[in-house]
Amino acid sequence: MYFCFAVSVASLIGCYSFTGASVPQHWTSIAIPLFDDESGYGYAALRESVTNMLIAKFQRDNTLRLRDKGAASVELSGVITSIEADQPIAVSQGSQAARNQLVIRATVVLHDNVQKKQAWKKTFSASADYAPSGGTAARDAGLQQAIEKLTDDILLETISAW
Q1: How far apart are CA 108 and CA 11, in angstroms?
Q2: From CA 121, how far away is CA 112, in angstroms rounded?
Q3: Model confidence at 22, in pLDDT bands (50, 70, 90)?
Q4: What residues have CB less than 8 Å from 153, skipping those under 6 apart?
Q5: Which H or E run contains 4?
Q6: pLDDT digits (tens, 9 = 90+) for 105-148
Q7: Looking at the predicted structure, is the pLDDT value of residue 36 above 70?
Q8: Please, which pLDDT band fits residue 94 given cuts at 50, 70 and 90?
Q9: Distance separating alpha carbons of residues 100 and 97, to the nearest angstrom
Q10: Which of 15, 39, 60, 151 has its CA 20 to 30 A from that of 140?
């Protein structure tokens, strides 16, 4: 009985791959120039925050090596298109907002420099909620959480959508 079970499991394992999707073979490196900011949000370090967090995630992931723009096999560029803050999502007694939401949106383009074509262009959005009673500090923490989610989504789309 054990032998039949082991053979069945072994044959099933042979049918499936446990490795995730990977990038095309000719993609070995990536350039990530500074994102543009067209949001009008007024957070001076927004471009740097998004770009630096994205770069750090690609470094940790290590699927693609970071290179300069002219030397990379792919280039990931983006524009932060909007940030909507202070959107009430929960109301407490007296019609006061108990939780607010912040949404960040970016349009991102991945260009294949080897094949000289656009691999994809997508709009990403991510949100985070925060307590309005926390003031600017809470809103800024919500923005950082939203940037974290946004950059996770961009990384995953780049390395696993193949």
Answers
A1: 42
A2: 12
A3: confident
A4: 124, 126
A5: helix 2-15
A6: 999 999 999 999 999 999 999 999 999 889 999 999 999 999 99
A7: yes
A8: low
A9: 7
A10: 60
Return the sign of the alpha-carbon dihedral for residues 83, 84, 90, 96.
positive
Two tokens at 151? 């950059």
Alpha carbon distance 53, 155 (integer Å): 10
Angle between helices 46-61 and 135-160 (to 10 degrees): 40
19 or 89, greater pLDDT: 89
Cβ count within 10 A of residue 68: 9
Q: How far apart are CA 16 and CA 107, in angstroms?
A: 35
Residue 89 to residues 65, 84, 148: CA-CA distances in angstroms? Answer: 40, 13, 20
Where b means 16+ CB within 10 Å and e means fewer, 24-51 reads eeebeebbbeebbbebebeeeebbebbb
